[in-house]
Amino acid sequence: YNLTSAFLNYACLIRFGCITPQPFLNTIEDEERVPGRSVPRNPDGSIKKKIFYDVPLKTFDSDFLSTALNNIRGNLTPFLESIQPQGTFYTRLQQEYLRIDSLEKLDIPQIPLLGNDMLLKKGSAHAAFPVMAQRLIATGDLPAVENPDSVYATLTEDLLEAVNTFREHNYISKNEAIGDHTIQALNRPMSFYKDMVRINLERLRWQPQREKGSKYVSVNIAAFMLQAFDTDTDSVLEMRICCGTLRNRTPLLSSAITYMDLNPYWNVP
């Protein structure tokens, strides 16, 4: 009984995700408190929170559980593989997780900090650069060379290029100099990146209840970009958009579009 229960639980988590996002994302900030007005509260008396995530998600039902139980009698591997997200992004994240996990087993040294707000440019010599090169070679960001301690005793052009590639992948501005801010990012443990992959694997398991249909609009808040798709004609309309700030966040939602407001009244913030 316990083994069957664990299998069903595992199958549901792999198919629909381990976390229900609403309880976490909708409890992070109180509703706006207006001076002179009472604090907004829920029926149970608790302080009302802002709704940042309002996307109804699919969950398991009796049909899914029956299918899972029927597959116990056979080979479980094809069933467990079939219920995972099938997209290329999910598969690549799985492969990336295995790659990072293998890097975690390596003894990658920590890069010494420069200190004193020091910034070093191309051609500068420092004990941090050979260690930096070893780390980037281990992670595949820099081609392997013989005797990296002597080759990268100074900040060479290819080492700086590899660092800037790392910066770009980690949302740090490219620069012609290297300081402690970049070194601290390079020194992050591999567990930091494994956690990032785990989080995004979980997000990819969340399945909205609403079907998109042949025409739909998708908004990428982080990229400040809107895309309108028409799958019947294979056309995509793209445009830049305005989004909220950390103080006034743009909520996540999934709904039908019922009307469009053309040329709305708008003040430049």
Describe this entry's structure for a reader.
This protein is an alpha+beta fold and 269 residues long. The model has no long low-confidence stretch (mean pLDDT 90). A three-stranded antiparallel β-sheet has the order 4-5-6, with no helix packed on it. Helix 5 packs antiparallel against helix 10. The protein contains ten helices and seven strands.
Secondary-structure blueprint:
Layout: H1 2-16, H2 21-25, E1 53-54, H3 62-70, H4 76-82, H5 88-104, E2 120-121, H6 128-138, H7 148-151, H8 157-169, E3 177-178, H9 180-186, H10 190-205, E4 215-220, E5 225-230, E6 235-240, E7 252-253
Parallel strand pairs: 1-7
Antiparallel strand pairs: 2-3, 4-5, 5-6
Helix pairs in contact: 1-3, 5-10
Radius of gyration: 25 Å
* Contiguous uncertain segments of 5+ residues: none
Strand order of the largest sheet: 4-5-6
Strand content: 5-15%
Task: Write the H/E string, N to C.
Answer: HHEHHHEHHHEHHEEEE
Structural class: alpha+beta
What is the rounded distance between the termini?
Answer: 60 Å
- What's the overall geometry? globular
- Average pLDDT rating: 90
Helix content: 25-40%
Largest sheet: 3 strands, antiparallel
Number of strands: 7
Number of helices: 10
What key attributes describe this structure?
single chain; 269 residues; alpha+beta; 10% strand
Task: Offer a quick outline of the entry.
The chain is an alpha+beta fold. It has ten helices and seven strands. 39% of the residues lie in helices and 10% in strands.
